[in-house]
Structure formats: structure tokens, C-alpha cells
Amino acid sequence: MCAGIAALCAAFAALGDIYMAGDSTMCNYNPRQYPQQGWGQALAVFMKDPGQLHNRAVGGRSARSFKNEGRWQKLVDDLKEGDWVVIAFGHNDANKAKAERYSSVPDYKEIMAGFVRDARAKNANVVFATSIPHAGGFSEDGEGKMHVRGGAAGIGPYVQATVELGAELGVPVLDLNKLACENLPQLGIKEALRLYMRIEPGEYANCPNGKSDKCHTRDTGAYFYARAAVKMARELGLGICSHFKAQKDVVFTPIPREGPGAKAQPMKDDFSAEEIPYANEEAANKEGAVVADWQKEILNLRREGRRNGMTDEDAKKWAAQEFHRRHDGKKQ
Fold it and tell me: N or C terminus of the chain with fewer C-beta within 10 Å?
């Protein structure tokens, strides 16, 4: 390794890594679920070194269940001094029908405060992000002007609690909810809904009957919210921004209207009834995967990287890192 490359690697290491804790709006999705992506997944496009991004978000989790399942403790165990933790919950915390997820607002704040204490005990940095709006809160008035109700689907009290707790504990808050409420009306309701998994029948071969999902984002929406998070982090002057490329160097390729191609075939679903609404890489990589398919998986990851604006070389590097990250995790 030449001296210049060694110095560059050392500089990246000095920044610390970025860890993400959240739900299905943030998590990684398997390539077969394209165009569905979480905004934490799209954040990789903005990274100078995508290998330093560790997206631990999992679909269907609230702050409570993320903690009780041991996921938070595993994240804390992996932290080192100077790392960053981006935390975003709220979409599942209000679900009284599922006791393992539900928290009252005071309990939610106490769990989130505990996350902050744990991370700071490892000399890591914490950033909160508010829940992205549920598109069920999008509407138009009689004059065709769009309005966004950021608290739709019960997330409002948890958005407010996150903002309040950030102020109380000195934790910076990336208020994605507020940004969307203020900026999505400029797009208009039709284009704003295109940020979410509102798929027309026949638009994608892997989703032949279409989809009407107002909670989760497609790649355009994931990119929108990831870019918003980067923009707000820069406005707040956060050190985490040292990880990010200049905006001019981040290129997004929109979803082709014709989908992934005529030869694409739907893949057989292996999600449980519980996992279907919150399908993510954990569900998609269940036991039974064919070992010989590793080459296909890496090629799919490379394509995903290129779709998200990476050069061929960067896509190859990211694909290898992402492949090993996923499979090393499955061995544990």
C-alpha cells in the first residue's frame, strides 16, 4: 500500500464509523425488493467510504423492541470512541396492538435517553432523526394545494418527543418530518406520492399487481430523505459531515418507468406473515439460500451501487463490503 493510500485510510478511520438504529423506513432492503429502499440504505450513496456506514435498522421495530431484542446492546458493543449513532424511531412505538412495540411517550423518551447514555459512555456521538411522514397524511385542498400532516398514523407525539428530548439532552436532531411538511407541497401530491411505494400494476416485474404502501419509500424517496439528512447535518455543523461527499459528486439515477426489464422474473416470497409488512434484508436472507448464488448477489449489489450513482470501481468496493457485512452478521 502506497503512503498516499495509507494516509487516506488513516484519515477515514479517524472519523469514526456511522451506525444507524431505526425501523423499516431506515433499513436496508434486498435487491429483489427494488425499488423499495430505506433512507439509511440510500445514505451510502453520500458516503466517501460506504464501508464506514453500518445500517442496523430493522423493519417493524420500535425503540422498545429494538432494545429488548438485544439489537441495541450489540450496536453499543461494536461502538468505539468517535463513532456516530443516528437513531430514528416512532412509526411502531404507538402500536398498542403489539405490546412488544408499544411505549407511552414518557417511556419512549426514557428508552431513547438510555440509548444516549449508553452511546456517550463509549465516547460516541449521537444524532436523532424524526420519523418521515406517513403519506396517509398527504392531502389537497379545493385549490389543488398540497398539505402534509406530519403526525399522521400516530407518529406525531413521538416526533415531538424526539425533538424535545434532543433539546433536553443536547442531542442534535435531523427533523426530517418538519422538512417534509415544509418542502413536499412544492412537489405537489402526485410527485410526493412517487417518493413512496405507490407502484402501478405492471410497472415492475417483481411487483406485478402494483402496491399502495404509504409508509415505505422507493429509491427516489430514500434518496430524498437521505439527502435531506445530509443537508440538515451540514446546516447544524455536525462533525459527521466529514463522512459525506460534496453534493455535486452525488448523482442519482431515477427509476426507469418501464421497471427493471422484460426478462426480470418475480422471486418466490419466503417472508412470514409478520415479516411481509416489514420485509428487509434480514427476512430476505433467511436459511435456505443457495451458497452458489453468492456471485449473483454480489452482481446485484454492484447494480444497486451503480443505480445510486457510484462509479464502477466504487460499486465493486461497496458490493464486496456490503456482502461481507451481511453474511458475517448471519454467522453470529
Answer: C
